[in-house]
Amino acid sequence: MITLIKLEITRALRNKKFMFFTVIYPSALFLVIAGTSDTTSLVPHTHLTMPLYYMVAMASFGSLTAVLMGNSERIAKERESGWVRQLRLTALPGRGYVVAKIASAAVATLPAIVVVFVVAAAVKDVRLDAAWQWLALTGAIWAGSLVFAALGVAIGYLASGDAVRPLTMIIYFGLSILGGLWSPTTSYPQWLQNISDYLPTHAYAALGQAIELGGAPHTKDIALLVGYLVLFAGAAAWLYRKDTRKA
Amino acid sequence: MPGAVVRLAQGCPAGTVTSVMPRPRPLTLPGRAALGEAWAMTATTAQSAPGTSAGSGRAEASASAPVVAFEKVNKSYGSMRAVADLDLTLHQGETVALLGPNGAGKSSTLDLLLGLRTPDSGLVRIFGTTPRQAIEGGRVGAMLQSGGLMEEVTVQELVRLACDLHPLAHPVRQVLEEAGITDIADRKVNKLSGGQEQRVRFALATAGASDLIVLDEPTTGMDVSSRQTFWAAMRAQARQGRTILFATHYLEEADEIADRVIVLHRGRVLADGTSAEIKAMAGARRISFELDEPADEAGLRALPHLTGIEISGRTVRMRSSDADATVHALYGLGVYPRGIEVAGLGLEQAFLTITDAATAEEAGR
């Protein structure tokens, strides 16, 4: 089990394309979007500056990329190639494969978060009031990524072959944009904001924003994320069992 | 078990002997009726004995459950019946070939055996336990025809993973060596040829001291020489007292390494015996010749011991379970056959004859 997790992590770190999209891409995007903005004006209807807003948005986006893309496509591919079947002929417990996938995605998530923070602090001079806020931010974004890891597993067992990439992309971009990771939802029409308020990505980014303002995350956002976690993990477990019966 | 031997020596009827039966065991032929009178002679109705065969070197196993037991197992996919009332017992130390064309139910049978699928009805047991329990205990090593490999890792890393997951693991180096992949240990898994991939799969199946090794079409994609090397690796595993079950449609392969061949057809056991017995069953020899004048069909078809005949103009090809008698009778017809050739049939031909006969009988129903 430990060997499988280690091997999954080694693979993830070796995959240059994957590492580029999870670690470099969010930071690059942060520089593109927040790079030209001034550091004092606030994002409309919030108390956050542009760099602060986008730092959390891009860190969340980076972890979303790592866990969603990392899990869904790999699981679908390995289901198809028969590797999952071959693993079922070992003494590895049935859940071991999924646990190893989530663990390795979580390891790739951490650098994605930290690199965005470092770039934001170095280039855009982002400062927080207290040191605990950095740690809390990292912890919250890292823990929150579990919700999307479960979603990635569910997609991996739902779709197969050619369908998995487009499906993942639609969900990935849909959640990123509608949830306000790329641009503040306050600029959206009201009806879209109403939808956005209930998306997991919106609640996910809101965790970080609350911490940046020096407070605790809102109960509503936490409840929403826990609800989505239960939903996605339940779907993943159900699809996994269905797939196992089908072999 | 001296008691059983004594009973044998006293001439107990074969049907009552259930404890010891030396190999090769009597041929069982569930589909015998389908195959014509010609080879009723070679078939017996004795049931295979659940005792263990000699030479396994694992005395403690002789008193316990058979390695593999299928009891009245059924599996359908929609309206397709993949496995039909299958009864199957494997004993310690046997090397068994599961032979059949595509769609005969080989892969389904192995999936059921390994617990990848659950039967609609019936019971599958490995060493008396469920397949999953046997796998978790490290008693089964298996490679699948469709068994993909983890990509972006080296051969050695993958084999190390298999060893770590096996409760009775061998050292990584030994596994690499026995599978003949030491030289490609540092190669990336996704950069291997088809034959090399098969050997890596074999390494995964033999990562530990499993009592049963299951291989689904193990030499697919190999050339002749690597197939020979691979067979040597399989034989080495068998010599260590392991029970080996492999599915194949390479009939040469069954002939070469198996000491027991089970022919599957439409999810049923069509024949079960040594490869020599299977060959004997289907009409051992092929006779071909030319005639000076158009053949007297009725006369030729009435020849004794024929199991098949094909007449095209003056060329005649026939199969016979007793070529000497057939040829003798042929001269008795008063014809003059030219260029007469009598040749033994390979297992492949034997096998085609069996499955054709079964298909024809089903169609005739």
From TrEMBL, chain A:
It is a multi-pass membrane protein. InterPro entries: ABC2_TM, ABC_2_transport, Nod_factor_ABC_transporter. One of its GO terms (cellular component) is ATP-binding cassette (ABC) transporter complex. The keyword Nucleotide-binding does not apply. GO terms for molecular function: ABC-type transporter activity. It comes from the Bacteria. Pfam families: ABC2_membrane_3 (PF12698). Keywords: Antibiotic resistance, Membrane, Transmembrane, Transmembrane helix. GO terms for biological process: response to antibiotic. It is found in: Membrane. Residues 50-238 form the ABC-2 type transporter transmembrane domain. The chain crosses the membrane at residues 18-37, 52-70, 98-122, 134-159, 166-183, 222-240. This is ABC transporter integral membrane protein.
